[in-house]
């Protein structure tokens, strides 16, 4: 693996994504992603830009110019773990729930990552587990216990 290949492989694994998922996002084949990761081929600059957006890292970090440092989770977010909250979503978000809305009540925060949170909530008599990117969230409000 080349340094670039190692970096995109590591980022893909850290984000729990498959080569197929990345390939679909970039409109390339799964084999293309494999070739990039092994160093058999290199992406065009437009694909490098798209990769940096998917992984939310700079192009410098993606190509190994700057040492990547993992962001620490916010103390505020850590405090929400295993708590019930109302989640307020950005109306321009690309996230869609079966009924488009800007808030979800009674969400149980089950996992917190540096760029996302995993919540469980009830919707139309069903329990839903959903991953939300922090960029799509305007805020939280603690629920009364």
Automatic annotation (TrEMBL):
Keywords: DNA-binding. The keyword DNA-binding applies. SMART domains: HTH_XRE. It comes from the Bacteria. GO terms for molecular function: DNA binding. Residues 11-62 form the HTH cro/C1-type domain. Pfam families: HTH_3. PANTHER family: HTH-TYPE TRANSCRIPTIONAL REGULATOR IMMR, TRACRIPTIONAL REGULATORY PROTEIN-RELATED-RELATED. This is Helix-turn-helix domain-containing protein. It comes from Candidatus Enterococcus avicola.
């Amino acid at each position: 693996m080349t340094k670039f290949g190692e970096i995109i492989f590591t980022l893909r694994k850290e984000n729990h994504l498959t080569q197929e998922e990345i390939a679909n996002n970039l409109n390339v084949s799964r084999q293309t992603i494999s070739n990039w990761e092994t160093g058999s081929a290199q992406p065009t600059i437009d694909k490098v830009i798209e990769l940096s957006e998917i992984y939310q890292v700079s192009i410098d970090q993606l190509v190994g110019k700057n040492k990547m440092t993992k962001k620490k989770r916010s103390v505020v977010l850590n405090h929400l773990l295993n708590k019930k909250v109302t989640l307020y979503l950005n109306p321009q978000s690309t996230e869609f729930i079966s009924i488009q809305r800007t808030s979800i009540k009674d969400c149980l925060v089950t996992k917190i990552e540096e760029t996302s949170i995993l919540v469980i909530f009830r919707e139309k008599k069903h329990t839903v587990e959903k991953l939300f990117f922090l960029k799509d969230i305007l805020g939280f409000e603690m629920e009364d216990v």
